[in-house]
Amino acid sequence: MNNTADSGLSEVVSVALILTVLILTVTMIALIALPIMGTNTDQVHNGDILLEFAQMKADVDTVWLSGSANVTRQAVFTLSPAGDRTEVTIFPNLLSAASFGMVSLSYGIPHGEYAEVIITYTSSNMYAEDIELIYDDGALFQNGRLLLPGSVSGSGRYVVVVNKTKVPEMSIAGAGVVTLNYRLEEIIDPAPGSADTNHLCVFWMELR
Questions:
Q1: Greatest CA span in the chain, whole angstroms?
Q2: β-strand partners of 177
Q3: Which one is predicted more confidently, 149 or 179?
Q4: SS3 string of the chain?
């Protein structure tokens, strides 16, 4: 009789110990492992989106420097680790779903019917520090700090602008991928003798 009772008690204790170990393991993963992996995932994506913006700036500069008009080009921005094609994690769904971002196209300083274009990326990271990237007046800023200067050639300043009647302000948020389509339409040089030395690089742009 005692042997049967001891056997039953032993089984209960074994199950309780197994459950305790499982609970402790899940708790450790939730409190330690996931935040560490999530921070790494967000930081990797912060670096990737910075490179994507820097590449976009370099490509736009190359277009107006070469005068390559009427050719539509693309820049791709990953809004979050979920849209990042280079990041692989053990728990991709859990980590990727926690963060997202937004890309917006807005108007800056007006130049008659045109306006300087501002392209902004804002992250909403679950684990790592948030990042804000701004392409404004041909310059690239990260969290308010100048990373790459604006576009100057010779004695004049080349300003990337859009026609406000053709290019609306827009924003796209989420966790996937956003494509910026852009095309140089013309470069408007300053009038001879004018105090305004700005060369207006008129682009058509859209976010998709």
A1: 111
A2: 78
A3: 179
A4: CHHHHHHHHHHHHHHHHHHHHHHHHHHHHHHHHHHHHHHHHHHHHHHHHHHHHHHHHHHHHHHHHHCCCCCCEEEEEECCHHHCCCCCCCCHHHHHCCCEEEEEEEEEEEECCEEEEEEEEEEECCCCCCCEEEEECCEEEECCEEEECCCEECCEEEEEEEECCCCCCEEEEECCEEEEEEEEEEEECCCCCCCCCEEEEEEEEEEC
Q: What is the pLDDT of residues 111-122, one digit of tens each?
A: 999 999 999 999
C-alpha distance from residue 86 to each of 36, 39, 61, 80, 145 (Å)? 18, 16, 26, 12, 26
Amino acid present at 57: K
Tokens representing 176? Answer: 């996937």
* Residues 117, 143 contacting (CB under 8 angstroms): no
Evaluate the CA torsion angle 60, 44, 179, 133 in order and state its sign. Answer: negative
**Is the model's pLDDT at 86 over the cut of 60?**
no
Q: Which two structure tokens, joined as six digits, stand for 21?
A: 């170990």
